[in-house]
Amino acid sequence: MEKDNTLIPAKEAVILREEAITIASDIISKENVEKTINAVKDIAKNVKAKANRATTSAKKTFAKKIDASFYVQYQGKEVFQQTILEKLYDEWLKSNKLSEIKTIDIYLKVEEDMAYCLINSEIKIDLKLF
Prior knowledge:
Blueprint: H1 10-27, H2 30-65, E1 71-74, E2 77-80, H3 81-93, E3 104-109, E4 114-119, E5 123-128
Antiparallel strand pairs: 1-2, 3-4, 4-5
């Protein structure tokens, strides 16, 4: 009977096993684990940031798709939101650029026929409605 040369003797197998364990333990060191954990944390932060941007974008897209109109009626008079915005833009453009507007807050005081407007939460413009 011929001897099978493909088999590794038991002693060599034990040595190879110990070398493999040594190599594996070097690879899976504390430093590598910490690097992996930090990499996973960075990926999680990026995913969260992208999800937040997607949610914000979806909200803006939803808001842009809705075409809403706003009317105020009081003592036989009626004013349309677009009319107020046009007057506000005309007044704003006398000394500013339209692109400078970030936010607009409008307070209607119908008994005075006035719209009090805040541009970017600080600049006040008073508009006579009628």
